[in-house]
Amino acid sequence: MVVETEALTELGEHIASQMPDAVRKFEVRVGELNVYAERDQIVPLMDFLKRNQMCMFEMMIDLCGVDYPERSQRFEVVYHLLSMRLNQRIRVKISTDEDTPVPSIVDLHRGADWFEREAFDMYGIVFSGHPDMRRILTDYGFEGHPLRKDFPLTGFTEVRYDDLEKRIVHEPVELTQEYRNFDFLSPWEGMTSQIPGDEKATTEEEGA
Fold this sequence. Notes:
Layout: H1 2-18, E1 23-29, E2 32-37, H2 42-51, E3 59-67, E4 75-83, E5 88-96, E6 102-103, H3 112-123, E7 127-128, E8 157-162, E9 167-172, H4 198-207
Parallel strand pairs: 2-5, 6-7
Antiparallel strand pairs: 1-2, 3-4, 4-5, 8-9
C-alpha cells in the first residue's frame, strides 16, 4: 500500500510539474489519485494524460456531474481514466457554474459523447464544441434537470407514449409520497430501530 501511494504521489507530482497551468492541486486518497484541474485547461490536460509516456491514460471510463448548490460554481465534472499499459487509474475534477460551458473532450475520447450529453440532460452542464449537444435520457419537451439538488419532486409534466391509446400523452408528475425511508428488506415498510434477526442476539444474551 505504501509503495502504491508513493507511485501515485510521484505520478501526481509529474502531472502537476508538466501541466502547471492546468492543475490546481492533486491528492492521493484511499489509494486513488485525484487531480483538481482548471476548467478551461481540461482539453490540453486530457491530451497530456493520454499521450505522455508516464501517463498513457488512453481509456476514458466515465464522466459524470455532481451538484453542490451552496457553491458559487455549483457543478463538478468528474472524469475517470484508465491506463491499460501502466495499470493505473486517475480521477480528474473540474468546477463550473450554471452559465459557463465546459470544453468538450469528444475529439480526444469519442466515448465521452454520450456521457457529456447525459451530464447536460441531468444537470444542465453545457459542453462547448460537442457535436450533438442535446438531451439523451429524458422525454420529449422535458423541462429542468432531474439530478440537480433543487429539482422539485412534483409540478412538472411527464411526456410518454401510451401504448393503449397509441399516442404521446402529457400528464402532470404526481408523487403520492415525496420521501421514503427504506430498510432494504421490504419495499412497504420504512427503517426500523431493530433489524429482523436482532431479537435472536438479545435472547441469547439474556440466556447467558
